């Protein structure tokens, strides 16, 4: 049966989204993110939405439907240890697989990497970092420290102006992600509206719940071939309930630090006791290895 001209045109413009999605390898990247990070469901959902938006934008461009490319610069807000850097790494891979950037690598920078201490020092420092990040993602942690209005001799404003220019003129080959505490980033954007106007995606990273922190601890231990027993697991849960109430709690980072200290105590305990021990004792974290923490004595852990 012969098809009409209109039917032929419709058939010729059909796009196999499933096939394009598989070829982009985005699902593998998202699966890796799920394995690396516990929880963070709102963040992962938003990353999937952005990935879908970028995929469709690329298909629209290839189909002659696009009028302008999507804005790619982002802002990640949340406390330390909530997975912002890990998500930034995966976002770089997504951008690379969809051909928005040439390389997809991540360069992490802070104020010290961008701002000089004397006249003429800031421009070459900022240019060097931008050069390293070109073709990928520039992740600026605690970005609000770039702006110090109380110091007339501060050179942060020069770095800010250079970054704004790069974000506008080099947006086809560099994505900038600003990161930091939400309240401070809000203040930073109020003082620097040029940044806000160039950022399309604001993603908030929530603190982990106690159950999620325990899941992170178990994940870290499995990867390092250690384990809790029932008593030490309860002790670590108690440790976390105390630690989250202390200042400078850093979510997964604090969990990792606590496990490192427990491993240190375990090693010291085994060597002090000496003798012959079963192989499984080399992997088991004891409750005393955890309860020696300063948190249980009213002190403060890092």
Which helices and strands appear, and what pairs or packs with what?
Layout lengths: L4 H8 L4 H8 L1 H11 L4 H22 L11 E4 L6 H14 L8 E4 L1 H4 L7 H12 L3 E5 L14 H14 L5 E6 L1 H10 L1 H6 L2 E4 L5 H14 L3 E2 L1 H14 L8 H22 L10 E2 L1 H5 L11
Parallel strand pairs: 1-4, 1-5, 2-3, 3-4, 6-7
Helix pairs in contact: 3-4, 3-5, 7-8, 11-13
Rg over alpha carbons: 24 Å
Structural class: alpha/beta
Q: Would you report the number of β strands?
A: 7
Strand line-up in the sheet with most strands: 2-3-4-1-5
Largest sheet: 5 strands, parallel
Proportion of helical residues: 40-55%
pLDDT average, as an integer?
90
Distance between the termini: 75 Å
Estimate the strand proportion: 5-15%
The coarse overall form would be globular
Helix tally? 14
Q: Summarize the helix and strand pattern as letters.
A: HHHHEHEHHEHEHHEHEHHEH
Poorly predicted runs are: none
């Amino acid at each position: 049966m012969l098809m009409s001209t209109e039917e032929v045109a419709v058939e010729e413009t059909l796009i196999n989204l499933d096939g394009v999605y598989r070829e982009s390898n985005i699902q593998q990247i998202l699966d890796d993110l799920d394995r690396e990070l516990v929880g963070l469901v709102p963040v992962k959902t938003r990353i999937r939405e952005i990935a879908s938006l970028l995929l469709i934008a690329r298909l629209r461009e290839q189909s002659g439907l696009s009028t302008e490319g999507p804005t790619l610069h982002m802002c990640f807000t949340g406390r330390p240890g909530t997975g912002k850097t890990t998500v930034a790494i995966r976002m770089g891979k997504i951008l690379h697989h969809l051909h928005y950037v040439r390389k997809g690598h991540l360069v992490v920078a802070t104020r010290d990497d961008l701002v000089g201490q004397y006249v003429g020092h800031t421009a070459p420092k900022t240019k060097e970092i931008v050069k390293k990040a070109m073709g990928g993602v520039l992740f600026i942690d605690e970005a609000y420290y770039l702006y110090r209005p109380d110091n007339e001799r501060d050179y942060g404003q020069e770095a800010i102006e250079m970054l704004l220019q790069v974000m506008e003129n080099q947006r086809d080959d560099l994505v900038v992600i600003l990161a930091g505490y939400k309240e401070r980033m809000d203040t930073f954007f109020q003082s620097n509206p040029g940044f806000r106007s160039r950022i399309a995606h604001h993603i908030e990273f929530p603190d982990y719940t106690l159950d999620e922190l325990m899941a992170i601890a178990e994940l870290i231990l499995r990867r390092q071939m250690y384990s809790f027993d029932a008593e030490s697991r309860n002790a670590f849960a108690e440790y976390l309930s105390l630690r989250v109430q202390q200042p400078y709690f850093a979510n997964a980072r604090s969990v990792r630090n606590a496990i490192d200290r427990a491993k240190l105590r375990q090693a010291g305990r085994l060597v002090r006791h000496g003798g012959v021990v079963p192989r499984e004792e080399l992997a088991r974290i004891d409750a005393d290895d955890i309860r020696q923490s300063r948190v249980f004595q009213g002190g403060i852990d890092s």
